[in-house]
Amino acid sequence: MSIDAMSAAIGQQGILHDISFTVDRGDWLGIVGGSGAGKSTLLKAILGARRPARPQAGSMIFDGVLRPFAKGWSGRPKGIAYVPQSPTHGLDPLRRIKWQWTQLFRCKCCVADYKPIFTALGLPDPEMHFPHEWSLGMQQRLLLAMALVEEPKLLILDEPTSALDTVIAAQVLTEVERIARDKSIAVLMVTHDLALAARFSNQITIMEQGRIVESGPTDTVLNRPQHPYARDLVAHRAWQRAETANA
Ligand SMILES: Nc1ncnc2c1ncn2[C@@H]1O[C@H](COP(=O)(O)OP(=O)(O)OP(=O)(O)O)[C@@H](O)[C@H]1O
Fold first, then answer.
1. Ligand 1 center–CA 142 separation, angstroms
2. Domain-terminating residue out of 125, 150, 175
3. Are residues 235 and 164 in the same domain?
4. Does residue 184 form part of some domain?
5. Do 105 and 210 fall within a single domain?
6. What is the spatial distance between Cα 76 and Cα 190, in angstroms, rounded to a whole number?
7. Is the CB of 237 under 6 A from ligand 1?
8. pLDDT tens digits for range 146-183
9. Are residues 141 and 172 in the same domain?
10. Which of 41, 43, 44, 205 for mutating ligand 1's site (highest number of atoms within 8 Å of CB)?
11. How far apart are CA 81 and CA 65, in angstroms?
12. How far is the CA of 110 from the centre of ligand 1 (A)?
C-alpha cells in the first residue's frame, strides 16, 4: 500500500499536509506522533472516512488499485482490517461475543475456527459472555483476533496496546508479528510510543502537526534522527528505557 501527497482539512483548517509513505506486504510501519499530530485522521482517511477531515489531494494505491483521495471511496476497502484504539468502538455491547464472532463468517470470507487464534492471543472460549464481561485488554485482543482471521493484506492498528499491560502487550504484539510474517500481511501501526514502534516496526514515520517530519528504516530513525522533534522523541525514548532499567 502506498500513499502519495495526501492532504486533508476540516473546513479551512489544514489537518494533514503532503503525506506520503509506502508499506509493503510483510513489513511493519510504525507511525509515531504526539497528541493532535493527525494520526487518527490519517487512518480514517485510508479507511474511506470523509469526516471530520475531508481528504483534498493525493492518492492511495492498495492491492493494485489507484484511489484518488479527493474522489473518496465508500466503506473500508476489501483486504484492509482495522483495530480501533478503543474496544468499545469495535464491539456491540448488546450482543454476545460468540454471536459477533459468528457474524464475521456470515459477512466476510475468513478462516472458520476461532480456537487457534484465541489460544495464541491468550483468550478464553467466549461461551455466553457479553463484551462488558471481559476486561478492556481482553476486548482489545478479541478485536485483534477478529481482524487477523479476515486474513487481510493490510492490518491497521490504532494504539493497539492502550488497554494492555506491558507484558501482555509484548506477548500479543509478538503473536501478531508472527502471524503477519507468516501471512505476508502489511502492518500499519499508529502509536505515540516510539519505544513500542521501534520494537515491532522495520520502518518508522514520525508526524508532527499533520506533517511527516522524519521517515526511514527503524535503525536509521533511532540512531540518526534529523528533525528536532524526532531527536526529542528519540532522546525521550532513551530516558524511558533508562528509567525502566533502573526500576
Ligand atoms: N471532530 C473534530 N473536529 C474538529 N477538529 C478535529 C476533530 N477531530 C480531530 N480534529 C483535529 O484534527 C487534528 C488531528 O487530530 P487527530 O485525532 O487525528 O490526532 P492524533 O494524532 O490521532 O491525536 P491522539 O494521539 O491524541 O489521538 C487535531 O488538531 C484535532 O484537534
1. 26
2. 150
3. yes
4. yes
5. no
6. 17
7. no
8. 888 888 999 999 998 877 778 878 888 888 998 899 99
9. no
10. 41
11. 17
12. 33
Question: How high is the pLDDT of residue 246?
Answer: 47
Inside any domain, residue 87? no
Q: For the chain, first and last CA: distance in Å? A: 41
Q: Is the CB of 40 under 6 A from ligand 1?
A: yes
Give the range of the structural domain holding residue 48, as residue numbers without chain letter. 2-79+152-246
pLDDT tens readout for residues 62-114: 999 999 998 888 888 899 999 988 777 778 889 888 888 878 776 655 556 67
**CA nearest 67: which of 92, 91, 82, 50?**
50
Do residue 230 and residue 167 come from a single domain? yes
* Shared-domain flag, residues 74 and 98: no
- Which residues on neighbouring strands pair with residue 60, listed in sequence order? 3, 67
- The complex's ipTM? 0.95
pTM of the model: 0.89
What is the DSSP code (8-state) at residue 96?
Answer: -
Do 179 and 144 reside in the same domain of the chain? no
Tell me: pLDDT of 241 over 70. no
217 found inside a domain = yes
- For ligand 1, whether the C-beta of 36 sits within 6 Å is yes
Confidence of residue 240 (pLDDT cuts 50, 70, 90): low
| Cα gap 119→91, rounded to integer Å | 20
Do both 132 and 60 map to the same domain? no
**pLDDT higher at 195 or 127:** 195
User: What is the number of residues in the chain?
Assistant: 247
